Amino acid sequence: IWLGYDHLVDWGLNTSHKIKYEKVWQGDGGEAVGLEDVRFFGLVNKADYLFRIGRLQVHPKLKSEVLRDDTPYSMGGVVGERKEWTQLAFLTFTMPVLRRTELQWGLEQMLFSDYVVDEDSLERGDFSGDFRSTVWAAQLTNSTNYQGYRLTTILGYQLRRLTRERTQMKDRSQTDSSVFMTIYASLSQ
């Protein structure tokens, strides 16, 4: 079962809501090893709004994801049950700096809660699976035509702080950064 609803309000607020429930029944009643009945449930809600202040575009966004999954062959190496809730808040800015160049920067805040781990059974200092992440990024994008191709070049910098929750101890944080460059080429029209 899948249901989705997207809505655009006249004054610029976009919302999107999606829900999916999937159940797989194995024919042998779960007697064979690895052939248990499985189910997946996902709920995603998003909202965003775009407005301008002069030449500056401001784009706040919110996203919430609820996931329950006991599929033994889940993607990403996760085996076993997953129950998690992810909450994201974004604030991005875009401003043209030259005729074909724009500067984009923004902030992302993520809160992740893992509901499978029994935190009462954890030892002092064990990670609970919950974390929060803050990402700041900036990029310069240039698009131009060159010998029949449309070239888009992106140069950027990202700074991320990840804080993982630990039982009966101070949370552990790490900070990392990266510099990136990407060039896309496509046939121009």
What's the quick description here?
This protein has strands at 2-8, 13-24, 38-49, 51-53, 56-69, 82-96, 101-114, 127-146, 149-166, 172-187. By secondary structure, the chain is an all-beta fold. The chain is extended.
Q: Round the Cα radius of gyration to an integer and report it.
A: 22 Å
On the 0 to 100 scale, the average pLDDT is 87
How do the helices and strands follow one another from N- to C-terminus? EEEEEEEEEE
Strand fraction equals over 45%
The number of distinct β-strands equals: 10
Computed structural class: mainly beta
Basic shape? extended
| Biggest sheet descriptor | 10 strands, antiparallel
The residue ranges in which pLDDT falls below 50 over 5 or more consecutive positions are none
Number of helices: 0
Note the gap between the termini. Answer: 41 Å
**What is the helix fraction of residues, given as a range?**
under 10%
